[in-house]
Amino acid sequence: MRKKFLAIGLAGVLLVGGVASGCGSENGIELPSYDQSADQNYNPDLFYRNDMTTYSADPSVLWVPEERDAKYGGYFYMFSTGDADNVKSFGVNRSRNMIDWEYVQTAFLPEKGSWAQNRLYAPECIYDEADGKYYLFFSAAWEGRDNDNLFDSMAEKSEYEQIAAKVREYDLATAQRGIAELRTQFNGEVPAEGYTAKEWEEAKSLLEDYDANMAQPEADDAQKLIWAKDCVLGLKTAHITRKAAVSFVHSIGVAVSESPVGPFKQYTNVEDEEGYNEAAREIGIGHPFFAHEDFYEALSAFEENGETEKYQALKSALPDRMTMIDADPFYDAKTGKKYIYFSSCQPSQEYIFGMQLGENWTDDPLWETLTPLTRYGYKTVDGNEEIDYPKGPSAIEEGPHMMYDSETSSYYMTFSVNGAYEKEYAVGQAIGKSPLGPFEKVPMEEGGLVIASDSLWDHVSGPGHHCFLRYDGKLYIFYQGLYERANPVNNTRGICVDEVKSYVNDAGVKVYNANGPTYAPMPKLGPDARYRNVAEEAQITVNRGENKNALNDGLLNIMTHHDQISEFSATAGKTTITLDFGDYRTIRALMVFNARDIENWFDKIDRVEFDFTAEKDGQRIESTAYIKDLVFNKELYCYEAMEIARPGGSVCVEFNEISVKTIRITIDSDKAFAISEIYVLGK
Predict the structure, then answer these.
(1) First to last CA, the chain
(2) DSSP characters over 228-252
(3) Residue 20 and residue 152: Cα distance in Å, rounded?
(4) Is 368 exposed, middle or buried (0-12, 13-18, 19+ CB in 10 A)?
(5) In whole angstroms, what is the distance from residue 297 CA to residue 46 CA?
(6) Cβ atoms of residues 615 and 19 within 8 Å
């Protein structure tokens, strides 16, 4: 119906009707149009909507231009966590418009014997222009290490596992003989040779517990065997430092491909295999790119080699347990150096760390550069001052993403706070002057949240774990949201996208702000989008009202956590807003975004006038067309149960292409009102 109606267009009207004389004539020509905001339908040729048609989470998106890749170029590629708990591979999807994704193939399926067989999370892909390869970083639960011990080196891990394998085969008599043979080493008051005082005391305590258990008259042989095995294993490995992990032992991996769709192959460095680098660590298929033991092994090496500064630097940064998720590779265009960021998991998930990598993405990390960068609930990592971010049931800081801002020579560490399945899941930002900080979070009241939902909203929930992408001069944020939008009760997640803008807040600090989270129609994105928002190029004048610059500054006022983004406001009366392009522009649609807060809404737009030019009977004519009585859909954009707005709604009207020089928007309101932004889709 819409296409047939619009097919008449202005040209058809000109053929059958006269042309009104004079710009702004009350008569004019009524422009055939379709009120996009009148119902739930939208024109996919012009708009998109975050309906989360792709069931997934933790998106990483890159654009592959055709000049780089003749076969796969011209598409956006997305790597993500499948929306399930026990993910065993990563698929890759592609899109031309950033919203409709088609599955391509499995990008990474761990080989047999790989350490990464379960709980593969948060893939992030980066392209290296120097070698023309794609590097896929990810985290996974190390196979066979659920609730396992953590060690000070891979050698100690191997020794412990060999001893444990033998002890598992013991019968009760063998285990008891082993305990008897080892008991004498722990009888004295001074630690035996080869044991620290702590190890020796822990072994003595283990023997005491064993003796007490075995003395229980009701204990049967099956229970005694368990106690005996635990005791003999503890005594045989008393010299090995180990720390109990409180959950899955996650580590970081990397896989490599010459194609954006894969297949990606896990990076290994094994002697006698192709590409072996003798200067780097040996890494087999069963070992992550880096894990807890690698950090502590590096620490020991620094100490043994007398590298005091490196030892102290790593020791001061290294937590007691280092298991990791959400790897974020970052190439610093300013220095040409490579970095990796991740969230630590043990014993709680409250810190984000970063460190420098070598010259190549698969080179050994520079362990001594390990640095804690942010801490959940605090403005800085030292924990001296709390931050005003929303707090959910889970105290989690995760999903880091680094971005360099050349205008301010600053580094922006963006990250997710709270649990991924919580309504309070959101993306915050911290600013530093180097890739490894120190970083300071921007308070929420100063625009510190890049994207977030409101606890009262019923239309958006849990926007977080994001990535940024620059395309065609604009910045976009891809993020996950929860399908249960009102009251999250499950963990089903889908992918969304919105544009990101920056502004200088009241504290004089440049911050980033998503024009979202949105659920209403927004201008179509990507190379297939024929139109873009040209309103920012217009000169705006108003006959009354305040903050006219807010009408085309590109910033939508959606999030409720701060009042940093201004809106145009006017008191009751007849208000006319004029957009002057200086020359004729081809336009196709108009969007007037209502105020964020329901009490500031306008009810309708009384009239929109377009000073246009067209051809009639071989002559170029100039006249005025109009659309009248565009009513804002309050039912669609109001949550009546709470009497609050669902921000981001607009009066949205489309029409056939028209060549326009000036647009006048008139609102005759009997109350004060505000407008967040005006979009004009054109060329």
Answers:
(1) 25
(2) HHHHHHHHHTTTS-EEE-SSEEEEE
(3) 85
(4) buried
(5) 56
(6) no
**44: preceding bond cis by omega (within 30 degrees):** no
Residue 464 and residue 343: Cα distance in Å, rounded? 14
Contact assessment for residue 458 and residue 641, using Cβ atoms and an 8 Å cutoff: yes
CA distances from 455 to 197, 496, 645 (A): 53, 19, 13
- Strands 133-146 and 248-257: what pairing? antiparallel
Going through 69-115 in order, the beta strands assigned E by DSSP cover: 75-82, 90-95, 102-108
Q: For residue 432, which of 389, 385, 475, 371 has the smallest C-alpha distance?
A: 371
What is the DSSP secondary structure assignment for residue 316, as one 8-state letter?
H
> 424 and 418 in contact (C-beta within 8 Å)?
yes
| H or E segment and range at residue 292 | helix 292-304
Count Cβ atoms below 10 Å from residue 44 Cβ, excluding itself.
Answer: 13
Tokens describing residue 514: 């998503």
Q: What is the pLDDT of residue 275?
A: 87
CA angle (369 as vertex; 366, 371 as ends), nearest 5 = 140
Find, among 137, 141, 140, the residue nearest to 60 by Cα. 137
Structure token digits, residue 16: 């059958």
Which residue bears the tokens 């076969």?
A: 71
> By C-alpha distance, which of 257, 4, 278 is closest to 128?
257
Q: How far is residue 329's CA from residue 254's CA, in Å, rounded to a whole number? A: 10
Angle at 419 between CA 288 and CA 434, to 5 degrees: 60
Q: Cβ distance 411 to 404 under 8 Å?
A: yes
Place of tokens 């609930």: 377
Long-range contacts of 506-512 (CB under 8 A, 24+ apart): 506/446, 506/564, 507/446, 509/431, 509/442, 509/446, 510/405, 510/407, 510/408, 510/410, 511/429, 511/442, 511/446, 511/447, 511/448, 511/564, 512/403, 512/412, 512/414, 512/429, 512/450, 512/475
Q: What stretch of H or E contains 207? A: helix 197-214
Instruction: Extract the residue ranges of the chain whose pLDDT is less than 70.
Output: 1-26, 38-39, 83-86
Distance of CA 481 to the CA centre of its chain: 10
DSSP 14: H
**CA separation for the pair 522, 508 (Å, rounded):** 30
Could you count the other beta carbons within 10 Å of the beta carbon of residue 632?
20
Asked whether the beta carbons of 494 and 483 are under 8 A apart, the reply is yes
Question: pTM for this one?
Answer: 0.93
Provide the token pair at 623.
Answer: 């006249």
Q: What secondary structure, in 3-state letters, does 114-167 show?
A: CCEEEEEEEEEEEEECCCCEEEEEEEEEEEEEECCEEECCHHHHHHHHHHHHHH
| Strand pairing report for 464-471 and 474-482 | antiparallel
Predicted local distance difference test score (pLDDT) of residue 83: 62
Structure tokens at 402: 């680094």
At residue 520, φ and ψ (nearest 5 deg) are -90, 165
Q: Which contacts of 415-418 are long-range, i.e. CB under 8 A and separated by 24 or more positions?
A: 415/343, 415/352, 415/374, 416/464, 416/465, 416/466, 417/376, 417/389, 417/390, 417/392, 417/464, 418/390, 418/391, 418/392, 418/393, 418/394, 418/464
Nearest to 329 by CA among 254, 398, 259: 254
Distance CA 484, CA 74 (A): 34
Contacts of 181 (CB under 8 A, 6+ apart): none
pLDDT at residue 85, rounded to an integer: 61
Measured between alpha carbons, how far is 42 from 39 in angstroms, rounded to an integer? 8
Are the CB atoms for 361 and 339 separated by under 8 Å? no
